[in-house]
User: What shape does this take?
Amino acid sequence: MSTEEKKGKVSWFIFPAVAVIVFILGLLASSIMERRVESRMIYMPKEKMDQFEPRNEKWGKQYPNQYDTFMKTAETSFKSKHNISSRDDMLEKNPNLVILWAGYGFSKDYNAPRGHSYAIKDIRETLRTGAPKSEKDGPMPATCWACKSTDVSRYMNEKGITEFYQGKWAEKGHEVINPIGCNDCHDGDTMALRISRPALLEGFESMGLDLSKATHQDKRTLVCAQCHVEYYFKDQYLVFPWSKGTKAENMEEYFDEVEFADWVHPLSKAKMIKAQHPGYELWKEGIHAQRGVSCADCHMPYVSKGGVKFTDHQINSPLAKINRSCQNCHRQSEAELIRSVASNQDKVYQLKMSAEKILVKAHLEAKAAWDAGATEAEMAPVLDYIRHAQWRWDYATASHGAAFHAPQEVLRILGTSIEKGSEARRLLTGVLVSKGIKEVDYPDVSTKEKAQKYLGMDIEAMKKAKKEFLETLVPEWEKKAKEREATYGDKKPMTKK
Ligand code: HEC
Ligand code: HEC
Ligand code: HEC
Ligand code: HEC
Assistant: This one.
């Protein structure tokens, strides 16, 4: 055979082979798609619910399957390599956080998140909300309630959005009683997914996007984006800082332009920005978002009970139900899927620790420089680097789940944090040497207790005051709320505007 003939034979063989491979790949892709399409269930609502009915148990009477699984968010037994569904003292586990957030509420108390049904209990109990003695007392604004309860849209409907954000946190304590639930995500008439939070609508508007054009699949993510996002308070009004985009650099530019600072760090005196939990923003950067996989696809998979198929409302770690959450699309074994999640998380946590060590030293060295007589002018560029380095570290790591949702993006941001933190320390070395300081005497801040003591925090006094608050003011809130709810009746309790 001539070489020409050979080539002819080979390509004759290659063409059908490629066709078969393409066909099989197509089947695989469409099976993933079909599973997703299958997941859109036609749902016929029973009796209509009032849009603003805050009591989840009332909705539960009509939708017992969803309600029962929703109530299971109270279960706390699940634990994976890096996440846990019970309260976990993050400051105890990682004392770096106490120094990084010094002077800010998070250095008092910070726990891992747990299920939605704990939202009210946990915000009342954390030391961050202080121990108000009256409506006009305490460190936090009313805005803090915005992502905790079904009473939020009820109140906003009755009295107005700005009115909700006004006043102290304690002022709305008797209004906000029911934890996150049905009316946060559902329209009472049709049970279709609905966006109840104005901040998300306004955030989309600020990017020139129209939320009303969102598809059904988009909404399976957007209901979560009402709360699992970065935000800040602009004169107590809740704002998602997205007008320049949703990446770490875009929001940093936004905050710099409006000269926003959450607080001034008491050691370094840097003007800091606290990242909240840009979960939605980081999910967008990951492979699953890019392939159209929504939050609900993994966190709210379908479940069958007595021949009825419905959405599992026990929103927790998808690793607690891999057969439904991942193996719906992936053919790998459970062990392999767990390994792939942990492997991404391990890499992120390694780089996160490097960034933290640099930042802790930068704050302590900046304090040493101030103590040695450094001037504002000498320190200005240092403080800018610290602000940006810590914002990026926080953005990358405060977003729960991002180490799996978008590991590459998280590693990229942590890389820039390390770069900026190192720049701060390089400049600091110059300042310190110019003041005759060759070595900084670092304090021992290796445990939560030592770090808090070094900062002069009296945690025992805070705990005592908190206990009193929980035993006196909170029961008053509960009583007032009961009286209000008693006026609702069983149906259509709220007057619509
Ligand atoms: C955090 C948002 C969220 C909350 C809170 C929530 N749901 Fe859902 N719910 C969803 C999503 C997402 C779906 C899937 C909808 C779809 O794809 O059409 C869903 C689906 C449903 C459906 C349609 C049938 C089904 O099972 O798919 C019903 C009924 C329902 N939920 C009832 C409830 C009730 C009752 C509550 C309160 C106890 C509640 N939901 C709380 C997000 C939520
Ligand atoms: C109304 C605000 C709100 C909405 C809407 C919301 N979340 Fe949450 N979510 C929270 C808060 C607040 C917590 C922490 C509660 C606590 O620790 O007490 C939380 C906790 C969680 C947790 C941790 C649970 C655990 O067991 O560790 C997961 C996972 C989660 N949310 C996923 C989602 C997903 C997915 C959606 C959309 C389907 C969603 N959330 C919608 C506010 C919200
Ligand atoms: C609705 C379908 C769907 C679900 C549910 C789903 N995935 Fe995926 N996953 C995909 C698609 C699509 C890709 C991208 C494959 C591609 O295009 O190369 C992907 C990619 C991945 C990758 C490779 C990431 C990379 O960097 O390339 C891992 C690991 C993975 N998924 C793990 C999981 C785990 C763990 C779960 C459950 C918690 C899960 N997936 C749930 C559809 C899904
Ligand atoms: C492809 C599947 C997948 C998608 C899509 C997904 N998640 Fe996750 N999520 C996970 C996995 C896996 C974890 C890690 C769980 C663990 O380590 O136990 C996680 C963790 C989390 C956590 C932290 C839970 C904890 O206990 O600390 C939150 C909160 C969360 N996701 C919210 C969201 C939100 C909001 C979206 C959409 C914007 C989303 N997730 C999209 C798979 C997914």
